[in-house]
Design brief:
Layout (H helix, E strand, L loop, with lengths): L2 H19 L1 H17 L7 H12 L4 H12 L8 E9 L3 E9 L2 H14 L3 E3 L8 E9 L6 H11 L3 E3 L5 E5 L4 H10 L6 E8 L7 H15 L4 E6 L5 H9 L1
Antiparallel strand pairs: 1-2, 1-3, 2-8, 4-6, 4-7, 5-6
Helix pairs in contact: 2-3, 2-4, 6-7
């Protein structure tokens, strides 16, 4: 099983729990607000907003809720203004982490993120210290639903994808950030249902850790993701099989 497949399975499991407690709606709502305020309410002319709305639909956010979020953000006035800030840091064992946040109070967010790193035996780093170890990639997920993974892979490559992970369900299709929309549309045109489409950070290379350090870092990531202001956490370590089995059954 590839490293990113392990991460994907753990993220999907956490995503189910986040939906149950409403955390996913909070994160997606902030993405919609930031995109609408920056680029306006027109889905056709605002690519980031279109992605955020697609994500909201994928987690069954009500259409009226999506509409209100767009109107509130693009209408100005007294709506909450969120600022996107990326924190960089190191976890136990030298793991590099990117913490993407959307906050209306950067002092509060910085203090909370720093506290969690410190308690976990890690540390925050300066801007650019670890970011060079990651790159943005487009990610499209497609549920198998009886489809032939090889046919999906061929359709994805034809649409402009540069990598396809067919081992798991859903199948993951990777592309350059600027190719994401073309890949998504190409797969839809080929008749494949899109579960999600987003631009996410991925580690260029990963490092191996002891089981103890891997557990510490997974706890660190979970604590960071439990913060309301944190949108996404990305790390560059491989999850040992025994730790993956523990996390997957939790």
């Amino acid at each position: 099983m590839s490293g990113h497949s392990k991460w994907s399975q753990i993220k999907r499991q956490k995503g189910v729990n986040d939906v149950k407690r409403g955390a996913t709606f909070t994160r997606v709502g902030r993405e919609i607000a930031i995109a609408a305020r920056a680029g306006g309410p027109d889905l056709d002319g605002n690519y980031k907003l279109r992605l955020a709305v697609e994500k909201a639909r994928s987690v069954n956010m009500a259409a009226d809720t999506i509409k209100r979020a767009i109107e509130k953000a693009s209408g100005g006035g007294d709506s909450v203004q969120y600022e996107e800030i990326v924190y960089e840091g190191y976890g136990p064992g030298g793991v590099a982490l990117l913490v993407e946040t959307a906050t209306d109070n950067k002092n509060r967010t910085a203090a909370e993120v720093r506290s969690i790193f410190t308690k976990a035996g890690g540390s925050l780093a300066g801007t650019g210290a670890v970011a060079w170890q990651f790159e943005p990639r487009g990610v499209v997920t497609i549920p198998r639903n009886g489809h032939d993974p090889e046919e999906i892979a061929l359709a994805a490559i034809d649409a402009g994808a540069d990598d396809v992970e067919t081992d798991d369900d859903p199948i993951e299709v990777y592309s350059g950030p600027t190719d994401l929309e073309a890949v998504r549309l190409g797969l839809e045109k080929a008749g494949y249902p899109i579960e999600s489409a987003e631009i996410a950070m991925h580690a260029k290379q990963t490092i191996e850790l002891s089981a103890a350090h891997a557990r510490q870092n997974l706890r660190l990531i979970e604590s960071l993701e439990d913060l309301d202001d944190v949108q996404r956490v990305t790390a560059n370590f491989e999850i040992p099989d025994e730790v993956f089995a523990e996390a997957a059954s939790a």
